[in-house]
Design brief:
20-stranded parallel β-sheet; binds calcium ion; 451 residues; 7-stranded mixed β-sheet; 9 helices; binds uridine-diphosphate-N-acetylglucosamine; 34 strands; alpha/beta; single chain
């Protein structure tokens, strides 16, 4: 490991025009969390002396997201070199190594960053940079090496000639620089290029002109260093991150029948021994205890699930659903802001919203808690061991006490006492022989028409 003190600069002031968004680029989310926070988390694991994030003017969301780290505003976005110049003001007197990272390249791993720092130390270089050999190098700065394979300069896409454009070795944007000399090099950067910007990528040429050395660390992992410039890039990063998250869960004892079809949120918690069938979406704030089975095509967010529960297929759990141990939720059941106690079953086609349901209660197919009257939400309270027959509409606010039975097809608008039967539907009327007579008349009419 590197023994020198470390500071980290993250460039995040760019407008991200190619994203066509009114959000700062680095505030776009991966697994539900701004990309800048993924990068910051990795940086924090180094325990650096300081992390400085360069932001743009009018980016209040970003300023809040980077706390407690130092934010420096780059008033005029005049390029990546200009951005590092701004950051340097927050690192006065710092003489250790300075890791310079791009906010739009958030998936760099700790190991890769370590390699970059070590490459500088081991080669006694003034600067090290992370390069990558890419099949498609479009849009990236190309690394120009001399006959001795030493880095001479970096040429940006817009400044490259046809021959240079063929180069596959690119700049990932991650540098590690000698903090004592960084400021003096930055002063030498000019903006004589196609975009009239101050490019940080001028550093190797400036250092070479002084007779100094830039060492190149090369990674093969193009997915890890993928920069986010467009929405398609964002999707590519999401894919990489999702795959990492799934691997992490599987390593912790979660089975996935078809991992590629499971979408996770950054904070999804799943205990060991759980099984996920294919095609499951997890939104924010889901916590699942051990030995739970989530069956295919379920959509789950803001939900707590106890051990031994079975959910789905085709279940939707959201907004404060709390399922205690051994609850069973079947197909086409939606649960919102409802607590289901131990052993509750809702196996088919139901909506349970703003409700509390006691132990071992059975909710029949088609049961609806009518929780909304067009103005406010009301609660449905159901006791233990209640049997709610199929297709019951429970009009809230309403309470059904322990051991009661609700007849199928009932619309319940009054509280039901313990052990009672509530039946609220038209009585069945039987007309003997009616169907046979009806058929006879109809068939005779049909014959007459045909003759
Ligand atoms: C940059 C590199 C390129 C490299 C690529 C890797 C330069 C000139 N080019 O190109 O060599 O291959 O990244 O992904 O460095 N930013 C600021 N202030 C500015 C301009 C940019 O903070 O004035 C920030 C942006 O927010 C972004 C990062 O710097 O996070 C990179 O800027 P971007 O414009 O995306 O650079 P690329 O064209 O991708
Ligand atoms: Ca970029």
């Amino acid at each position: 490991m590197n023994n020198k003190p470390l500071a980290i600069i993250i460039l995040a002031a760019g407008q991200g025009t190619r994203m066509k968004s009114n959000r700062p680029k680095v505030m776009h989310e991966l697994a539900g969390r701004p990309m800048i926070n993924w990068l910051l988390e990795t940086c924090e694991s180094f325990g650096p002396e300081k992390i400085v994030v360069v932001t743009g003017p009018d980016m209040p969301g970003l300023e809040a997201a980077i706390k407690p780290h130092t934010g420096v505003v780059q008033k005029v976005r005049d390029g990546t070199g200009g951005a590092v110049k701004c950051a340097i003001s927050a690192l006065k007197g710092f003489t250790g190594d300075v890791l310079i990272l791009l906010g739009d390249t958030p998936l760099l791993t700790v190991e890769t960053m370590q390699t970059l720092i070590q490459t500088k130390t081991e080669n006694k270089a003034s600067l090290s940079l992370l390069g990558c050999i890419m099949e498609n190098s479009y849009g990236y700065g190309r690394l120009i090496l001399n006959e001795k394979d030493e880095l001479q300069e970096i040429v940006e896409e817009k400044d490259a000639d046809e021959e240079q454009k063929q180069i596959r070795l690119v700049n990932t944007g991650a540098f590690c620089a000698d903090g004592a000399r960084l400021e003096s090099w930055l002063e030498k950067i000019d903006n004589n290029n196609a975009q009239n910007e101050f490019y940080i990528t001028q550093l190797p040429a400036i250092i070479a002109a002084e007779g100094g050395k830039t060492a190149v660390a090369i990674t093969k992992d193009a997915a890890e260093i993928h920069g986010c410039n467009t929405r398609a890039d964002l999707a590519a990063l999401e894919k990489t991150l999702q795959s990492r998250l799934r691997t992490r869960h599987m390593n912790e004892g979660v089975s996935m029948q078809d991992p590629d079809t499971v979408y996770l949120w950054h904070d999804t918690q799943i205990a060991p021994g759980c099984t996920l069938e294919p095609n499951i979406y997890f939104g924010p704030n889901v916590s699942i205890a051990e030995n739970v089975t989530i069956r295919a095509f379920s959509h789950i967010e803001e939900t707590t699930i106890g051990s031994g529960v079975a959910v789905g297929p085709f279940a939707r759990l959201r907004g404060g659903a709390k399922l205690a141990q051994d609850v069973k939720i079947g197909n086409f059941v939606e649960i919102k802001n409802a607590e289901l106690a131990h052993g509750v079953k809702a196996n088919h086609l139901a909506y349970l919203g703003d409700a509390a349901i006691g132990e071992n209660t059975n909710i029949g197919a088609g049961t609806i808690t009518c929780n909304y009257n067009g103005f406010e939400k009301n609660k449905t309270m159901i006791g233990k061991n209640v049997f709610v027959g199929s297709n019951a509409a429970l009009v809230a606010p309403v309470t059904i006490e322990n051991d009661a039975i609700i007849a199928a097809g009932s619309t319940v608008t009054e509280n039901v006492p313990a052990d009672a039967l509530a039946i609220a539907r038209a009585a069945t009327e039987i007309r003997k022989g009616w169907a046979a007579k009806y058929r006879k008349i109809k068939e005779a009419a049909k014959r007459k028409k045909a003759s």
